[in-house]
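Deviations from the work plan: none for this task. Representative record:
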Amino acid sequence: MIASQRLKTNRFFNFIKIIILIIILFFSIFPVFYMVTTSFKTPIQTYNPAIWFFKPTLENYQNLITKFHVIPYIINSIIITSFSVVLALVLGSLAAYSLANFDFRWKDEIAGWMLSLRYLPPMAAVIPLFLLSQLTHLYDKHLLLILAYQSFNIPFATWMLRGFFEEIPKELEEAAMVDGASRWQSLLHILLPLSRPGMFATTALLVIQTWNEFTLAFFLTSNSARTIPTITSQFQTVRGILWGEMTALGVVTILPVIIFAILARKYLVRGLTFGAIK
Amino acid sequence: MIFLYFISMTNYDLGTPLSSAKFIGFDNFIRLFSGKDREFWPSIRVTTLLSITATLFELILGFIIALFLNSIEKFKGSIISIIMLPMVITPVIVGLLWKLMLNNDHGIINWIIMQLGLNPPAWLSSQYSLLSVLIVEIWQWTPFVTLILLSGLTALPIEPLEASSIDGATYLDTLIYIIIPIMRPIILLAVLFRLIDVIKIFDIVFVLTGGGPGSATETLSIHAYRLGFYQTGWIGRASATGVILAIIATVASFYMIKFLQENRRSM
């Protein structure tokens, strides 16, 4: 009797739980879902929010390519993201290696100072960078953004990789050195292969944050090095906002990020908190 | 190795406001603080208001959702993948997406409100625009707080929880007297992360409202942008605002980093 009653209340609680869960999931996913559906609507349909069933059209995506020529911007984004991520990984892993393996003065201070650069508001960084880019004639060049992004990518890579490197037992490296391996060899053949999951997670998170960056890209480029997140202003015309094309662009922009996020899911929190929480 | 490490540091030295120091005199700062620049203090107010309310709501909501998710056994991985969706999406796209949904005439949100027979507000008007920014910020970043707190909850030691349930404590008692005190460092960490991020908020506001209407949603970052890049081009005055922004963010991040390093050492 009591057991069956308990079963009933348990079922009731489970039911409530499922309802709450559906509400939470709905709130997380609905705006994105709505954007995706809008991107398949014709211009007139975009002005009616209540249309749920319609014949999907690829018109907006075609317009993106033929009218708005977005392909070069996508290529820009890919070039800038890949180069700055690779550079940050190389320099970051070297810095992380020295922080994890050597003892030197002000080690924590240096590490902390590096991390504080990551927290510099982009709007504060953009003004000096803008002026410097004018002086060095780097304005609107891919190289400028690749270098500028190092200001937050290197600290990020360093902190992430430092945590991963420290997890690898020191004995392994010491054993390799006893066998005659140099620091370089032990880094290349022992540490990096062993921290492959960490490397992978760091890469995915770097790709996400670089791809999403807006402020620096917006103010430091004008045309030839623009990235996709910055071209959204093109869709605000005199006749109103071109919602169809804009949402199509949104879908194109977030697609790679979502893929990388799912791949790096397990490390997302760790990445966003600089390894403070594992 | 150390040499290379130093090269890597000079590399991002480009990003510090030090290089702008030669372009500004104290006049710009005096101008800001004395109130001659009429939008400066309001923008401080907007930034403060936004960062405190956003962090507070994200913390409360995030904590509730984290407690809830912690009680679920099945499909946790896929649920988390869906929940984290908002925070990985490009912030500018998030801004646009909500601009579409909050639109007065053909936005889905006002459509729903009208279906319920209520009077839909003009979300992006001066009266509601700050609330709109707040909603978007909360939508995008509550998952982050949730995930941080969830990782804290899963790492909770079992013994005190068991002991309290044997002693006949209610769930609320356990929560207030055991879970929250143990979780305090993690909660603090989440708060610091969010505070620092909201202080420098730019892209969402820029796309959603552009700081307007008027200066209703003008945060410090938007203020710097308006001074420096929008019509006027007063780079000097904009940099002064930028420096103040950087100082606030640096002080906040200094505390956070100290905290992070203590955490590292204790682990």
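Strands of chain A lie at 236-237, 240-241.
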